[in-house]
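name: query_chain
kind: protein
chains: 1
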Amino acid sequence: MTEKNLEEVLYLLQLHYEAYANVKAFADKFKHPHPTDTRGWSQIIVSALTGIGGYERKKGPDLEDGSDVKAANCWDAIDTPRFNGCIKAGTQADVANSLASLDKMPYLFFVMWDVTEKTKKERCRIWVVRTQYDQRFRDMADLWYRQRAAGTIRSDNFQLHPPRNLDHNVFRNNCGVLEYPLLFEAHASNGKYSVKLADPTMLTRGCCKVIAN
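structure:
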């Protein structure tokens, strides 16, 4: 994560912010949901931040190294934003429905646009899980897979509930409440973004922490 990476991320965040602001008036006027492609923006921004390229529009993982990116946008959201499909289940892939899917994935990135808890400033946060090594995350995923195999859980959708508009890093799931490694955070003030945190060590040493329910 270099200064050039951060410069490009700030530029992209600014583009996203301005695109959102420019179209919002028309979405409101014509009574439609906001058309921002949160998933696409998130993938591009993670690539700019980490230097890991995309998968060239092919089916498969989001990034060329096998990593995935999950996205959520709280701005003017109609439904409750959450991260969906965080681990593979219910597909025909050889590694679906087991921890083998995590063994093939170097990183799982989570990107969320929301506002700060106290000052209500727009922000973007990016968390990262080292899915091959993070034992707390793997324990939670393993419990979910076992409950699904036993029929206790019938859904194929492993959801994580992030800290929407809250100033902490705790994600919730019925199989585990964990504090996630924060890789990056930027806030917008008077329409301009600035970096509040950029910690590349999370890519090599970051680990989830168990939080009591």
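note: The chain is about 30% helix and 20% strand.
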